[in-house]
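Reference record
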Amino acid sequence: MYTVEELVAKAKQDGASDIHIICNLPPKYRKDGQVQDMGEERLTADDCVAIAKFLAKGEYDTFDRVGELDAADTFANNRCRIHIFKQQGVPSVALRLLREEIPKLENLGLPPAVLKLTELHKGIVLVTGETGSGKSTTLAALLDSINHTHRSHIVTLEDPVEYVYKPDLCAINQREVGKDTKSFSEGLRASLREDPDVILIGEMRDRDTIETAITAAETGHLVFGTLHTGSASDAVDRIVQVFPADAQTQIRLQLSMTLAAVLTQQLVPKKGGGRTLACEFMVVTDAIRNLIRSGNTPQIANAVATSAALGGQTMDQALVRLVRGGVITRDTAMHFAHEPEYVKKNAI
């Protein structure tokens, strides 16, 4: 039978990002965005149960009753994010390999203007994108940069704790939802009584969390959060649509005054193998504040496209730059673009 240590060691050696444990299939990992077999031997139901019990430790009974469990641990000297869930009555596992060290912000290939976000003193900064697009890594790098350059108090709310920070100039409290606090919204409300300067919210999932995040930004805190959206305008719409119709005008007003920036990420295949980061970056200008306030979010993309002087860029502009730089093909850029015709016309 495969051991978790062996699987993580092999995935790490081969540069894979995720491991999947599924009954009646060989263990699989995701390398360069593609799911591949790690061996030939298929996992039995007993194998899956044994691995799930090992990963869940003393919480297997809770998992067995509820049907899913999130955790984090270190195997083969690599910290991992763990999600155990049931399918057809048998445990499955999705295990994400995290970087051993928090990368330096300037080494992630982000737009240069993103580095200036660490100088903000208040407001909301959103990092958005699909699962596996590197949101957690970018947020960790942002916070660690603050850790090494500012004397502040950082409070994180995570589910689970992924990167573990080593406090330098900052005091840092990392709280895990389900262990250290009941929920994101309750932990966030409590954090306002903990004298924070910077707050990280692992995911802005519900109305209570979003309302409290806006309140935190209004009262002078710098708030970082994530959303699963594909553009800055989608992020604005997602936040507003969490609220009932009669509250949306007020939320648009508050969001227009507190939102500082939105960074949207996706990982796209490079020429010759591997993946590279493509980013949309919106710096919230007065013009964009007016669009948010008026509900005219479809025009946000145009405003971002014309904000190059402030470091802004749309996803399609980022993809065109990658094509012109010889990093990705034009076909790849068109596949990942919001407006393929724009890329087809400009990526030459």
